[in-house]
Amino acid sequence: MVKPFIEFRDVSKSFGKHQVLDKANLKIYEGEITAIIGKSGAGKSVLLKHIIGLLKPDSGQILIKGKPLSEFSKEEWRQFKRSLSYMFQSNALFDSLTVFENIALPLVERTNMPQSEIKKRVEFRIEQFELTEVSYKYPSQISGGMQKRVALARALVTEPTMILFDEPTTGLDPLRKNAVLNMIAHYQREIGFTGVMVSHDIPDVFFISNRVAIIENKKIAFQGTPLELEQSDNEVVWQFIHGQEALQDQLTGLESRKEVEATLKKEIDKVASGKGIFTVVLFTIDSLENIKNRVGYIAAQRIFQCLAMSLKMSLKGRGVAARFGVEDILLVLPGQDKSVATSIIDDIISDCSGQDLMDPRSYKKVCIDFSVKAGILEVREKMSFESILAEARNNQKLIAKMECKGARG
Amino acid sequence: MSKPATNSEQKDSFDFIEIINGLGRYALNIIGELGAIAIFFFKGFLLIFSYPFQFKKIIQQVYFIGVKSFLIISLIGLFTGMVLGLQGYYTLVKFGSEGMLGAAVALSLIRELGPVLTALMVIGRAGSSIAAEIGIMRISEQIDALDTMDINPMRYLVSPRIAASIFVFPMLTAIFDVIGIIGGYLTGVVLLGVNSGIFFNRIYDSVVAKDITGGFLKSLAFALIVSTICCYQGYFTHMRPGGFGAKGVSLATTSAVVISCVLVLVVDYVLTSFLL
């Protein structure tokens, strides 16, 4: 077992009567990016500020490479602190210094580096972050995105072994947000620092982190790799990752994926014990992902919604359906055979064909052909969840097709 | 009938204890605060001498606190001297001793008005902006940022200001004194016709080294008080009850100016009584 670089052991912290952390336990490993997610005001920044000593725990311990922070000698603490950089949520740039001076400050104040060397290093960072044009401006004269880049440049200029990011992407537009996350991931690979990042950007932040910790109700409710996170059935975790999807599914009127999975499991067990049958239908909207990327999010959502709503209407409570992945809907019909499934599909075909899902007039330039497929599988004997899905996908046939018919501009 | 009376009696005694409690708390707070200021001062002062010396930053502060105050100090000095010349002449002529005018103007300027008025003017001009600047750095997390970079904020922000004040206050006081005497000369000699030779001879006769070192000591003491109080108020803006953010900074600036002014006058009295 690898020893954690930083470990929180039963750390509690209150501000006056307001308790923020209650016996929180957290492990951060060397050379990894750990993302801390949680609701606003849940104590994420407080956690970070404990690492750098801006706050001290009321009780509990923080261990750095196994040694409690409280036992650090002054010199050890200094060494540790010098190996850290902290990127503040508000950037905390020095507003009476220029961009250049801001980035140079840690080098000027902490090292005996000759002026020319400092200039070289700072200019390297300035170029790297495309700040050349603003290097002699003051922080208040540049945009928010640039300020973030200056803050990041200032954090990296000392070549730290660990960087703490306090919401590095909050308040940025999606493009800049991705750029900042990219930058962090890129430099992490290049320099190999340990990163701790507090963020709201789910799921984007998962792509660049090696570990994720969720803080909820004053405790660390979950910590593990993003993969473990995705497969976790922890209620809190579920809420966090599926917050956005859940809203979409609510809009379409479908059940949650969890509900459908539970029904399917029950039915599989029933069939296994030799009682009854059930049918599953797997709908796939071909190239929905493509439409989402090229035409737009709303167009894709409309197509999906139309299918989901007519499905829901013709279902009349005979089964449950949920979105599985981006393009798929899984329908489970407990106790029903193939014929019911076929009639439902027929209903959907007659229902949806009357609507202009992708009206060539409104999507002139970007019209994309798409089709809906459905695969029926009647289950009479014990099968695994995966094989049911694979079989159903195998059975898929085209049920509807939408063509642009030369409307492409 | 007796019941309500006991009640109110109880209430009275309760109130009384409350008042005593309140006074005690208040006194403890003040003592605590004074202790904090003293520690703050010693830390800031000792860090002036830590290696590497912050020459550049001290020079910048000398420029900001000193050079930029030069004009206003000269102006105030000139008019103070001129009015001293007028008032002094008016009083002295009643006793037929207007020849003493030079001594009166010079002594009151060097011993008293020079150091005090210089300190008050610098508080208004530089002290308030020191408190505001450091206060804003505090609320916008810039001080925390310094701390996380392992740059000692006390050394970076406070020490250069204390050091610069130590340089600048006596110099500004000297300038104030000289220009004040010239002001007295203008009204006394040029305007009212006191003999110029007598005016300067009296100054030469009556001003001794002790007067000048006294004034110098005072201005040193004021330098320490003003720089410490103004930095302290700004530095702990966030700890101030009842004001956050911009409001906190405005309160910090106000109390920096008020507390510095009051302390300068109180310390002036105490020092004068010891130096006499």
Overview of the structural elements:
The complex is a heterodimer of chains A (409) and B (276). Chain A is α/β, with parallel strands linked by helices. Chain A contains 14 helices and 15 strands. The longest helix of chain A is centred in the C-terminal third of the chain and has 19 residues, at 297-315. By secondary structure, chain B is mainly α. The radius of gyration of chain B is 24 Å and the shape is globular. The N and C termini of chain B lie far apart (65 Å). The mean pLDDT of chain B is 90. The chains are: A alpha/beta (409), B mainly alpha (276).
Quote the average pLDDT of chain B: 90
Order of helices and strands of chain A: EEEHEEHEHHHEHEHEEHHHEHHEEHEHE
Largest interface: A-B, 21 and 15 residues
The helix fraction of chain B, in percent, is over 70%
Distinctive features:
heterodimer; A: 409 residues; alpha/beta; six-stranded mixed beta sheet; five-stranded antiparallel beta sheet; 24% strand; B: 276 residues; mainly alpha; 9 helices; 0% strand
